[in-house]
Write a structure and sequence with these properties.
The chain has about 200 residues and is an alpha+beta fold. It has a single domain, classed as Fumarylacetoacetate hydrolase, domain 2 (Alpha-Beta Complex). It has helices at about 10-15, 90-95, 105, 155-160; strands at about 5, 25-30, 50-55, 55-60, 75-85, 85-90, 110-115, 120, 130-135, 140-145, 170-175, 180, 190-195, 195-200. A hairpin with a 2-residue loop joins strand 13 and strand 14 (about 195-200).
């Protein structure tokens, strides 16, 4: 199982981090060791000082595919989840300044929080009309709407599959909306899709 992540897929998030709007999807990977085990508290490593939360809609791949055409992409997934892409922001900034890959800032152990529950794709009337959100200590800090994606889910799957064969169980993090921010000890993060609680974790 692999985790493919999409960066810079929401315009307002691009603006808040003062990044350039990409012409094609920005992709990076997380290994399976990045997954936070179910029911485990979250501990952050000590190799960085500033960690940011980024809530993202997750697509779970249902069958193997390569060079998938956009019009057929809907056949390759049937479940939608929610998660956090945890980023060592200060380390990422240093890596970017040196023109180096982001993996040390994005793919470290426990940097991927994934909801234990996935919702059936057919439960949604329109995949480009899904609302999701994140609360930090009971205050909403991020709100996303799939209509705001620069590249919607099916186009992402088609693009990703030109580089990487997608296999059953693979996860695609589809990008984060604006509102990312710092994580601190004792913070509690709760994620929602259309008002349904998908995960709740506490930072130790």
């Amino acid at each position: 199982m692999k985790i493919v992540c999409v960066g810079r897929n929401y315009a307002k998030h691009i603006n808040e981090l003062k990044n350039e709007k990409p012409k094609k999807p920005v992709l990076f990977m997380k290994p399976d060791t990045a997954l936070l085990p179910p029911r485990n508290p979250l501990y952050l490593p000590d190799f960085a000082q500033e960690f940011h939360y980024e809530v993202e809609l997750i697509v779970k791949i249902g069958k193997m595919g390569k060079h998938i055409a956009p019009q057929f992409a809907h056949r390759y997934y049937d479940q939608i989840g929610l998660g956090l892409d945890i980023t060592a922001r200060d380390l990422q900034a240093r890596l970017k300044a040196e023109g180096l890959p982001w993996e040390k800032a994005k793919a470290f152990d426990n940097s991927a929080v994934v909801s234990s529950v996935f919702l059936e794709k057919n439960a949604f009337k329109n995949l480009q009309d899904i609302h999701f959100s994140l609360k930090k200590n009971d205050e909403i800090v991020q709100q996303g709407h799939t209509a705001d994606m620069l590249w919607p889910i099916d186009k992402l799957i088609a693009y990703i599959s030109t580089f990487f064969t997608l296999k059953k169980g693979d996860l695609i993090f589809t990008g984060t909306p604006a509102g990312v921010g710092k994580m601190s000890i004792d913070d509690v993060f709760t994620g929602y899709i259309e008002g349904q609680e998908m995960f709740k974790i506490k930072l130790k």
